[in-house]
Design a protein that fits this description.
Strand content: under 5%
Helix content: over 70%
Distance between the termini: 61 Å
Shape: globular
CATH architecture of the largest domain: Up-down Bundle
Radius of gyration: 22 Å
Amino acid sequence: MDDAEQSGALKRIFKSAANVEANEIRATVLSFLWVFFVMCAWYILRPVRDSLSSDWTNEQLSWLWTSTFFFSAVAVSIYGAVISRVRFNLIVPSVYVFFAFSFIGFYIAGATMSGNDIVNRIYYVWTSVFGLFHLSVFWTFMSGLYNSRQAERLFGVIAVGATTGAIAGPAFVSAFADNIGSLNMLFVSAVLLLTPLPIMVALNKLRSTALGNPDTAKDLVRDDRLGANPFSGFKEFVGSPYLLWIGVFILLYVTMSTFLYYEIRKPLGDLDQVRRSQIWANIDLAVNVLAAVTALFATSRLTTKAGMPRTLALVPAIMVVAWTVVSVNPTALTVFVVQVVRRAGNYAITRPAREMLFTLVDSETRYKAKPVIDTVVYRGGDVMTAWFYTGIVGAFGLTLTGVAAVGAVIAAIWVAVGVMLGRKYNQGGDG
């Protein structure tokens, strides 16, 4: 088979397997690779970050989460101000270059000031702030690259790149952390973040050639959705009972996340940082594999057959059972398993259903109120629940069994809120 025949066969395979047109293959592959590299970098940085948490007390970690909320709000505000004045096509590579060199800076600082607690704390907060941008910037670029008809066919294929990267990243840490150490992981991540730069240039050229779409960057700059202050939708949020219920649902989810995160780090305190990174990476790996399998075989069937109330209540109900099991068998392994199940359930079931809730609100409300929910409720919820956990554990001397009992009660409330929110969705939200 000659080159022309091989090229034709490849195009037929893409067309039949993923509904990708011949003129879209190169852009789709490049988009796939871009998000793969970015997600791989994130999931290398993440376990290194989480491995540091075992070095601090509950109170110290709560202060770090408070700092993360503050700097996240500042970063999102600055991003909104900049993006309303600068072409988006310049912003995207600048974001990745900025963060890549920042992690190179942490690599140098770690090499010259090994084990410095201040550097570790700054890295912990900074990596959490980076988590706000790495994927959202990518998808915003994608929304301007493809038209709506192309997006309907191609975004699912491109999203597989994110899933693949989310599996490859923690697998890399698990396999190679012993050989290269946690510090060198930062340098690897920085290189991965710089890798998409030539891909961005190529995609910008393909936008108006192979894809046949105009350059919408100028329109994106003028679009109030991108330049809005993250708190400008606060009035819409507090004025809508439907959005408030979504906020309560997310806050209860965050509480589950916080309780488990704080408990997971405790038994890891006696291990070295490399081993901790590997354990956190193994958790991420198990989560992402389970989430991918669940999303592939169960998510769409669940939402269509079970209905929104049951779908939203499913993971909370699982958490009631999970916390009960933890209270009976309060071991580190049990907590690890519960964390895997909870996070995988969130990625594959709760998060898609939660995003569907916003289809009932108009575009203006969605683009104004959603940043409030994502920043104030979600990140603020991290801070509030961290201090709540720290307070009750310190005041009552709760062991894992006691924490599990409190968690089960909160999860039961989460079930009730999920059912009520699902019913409101079926009734048309506030309408």
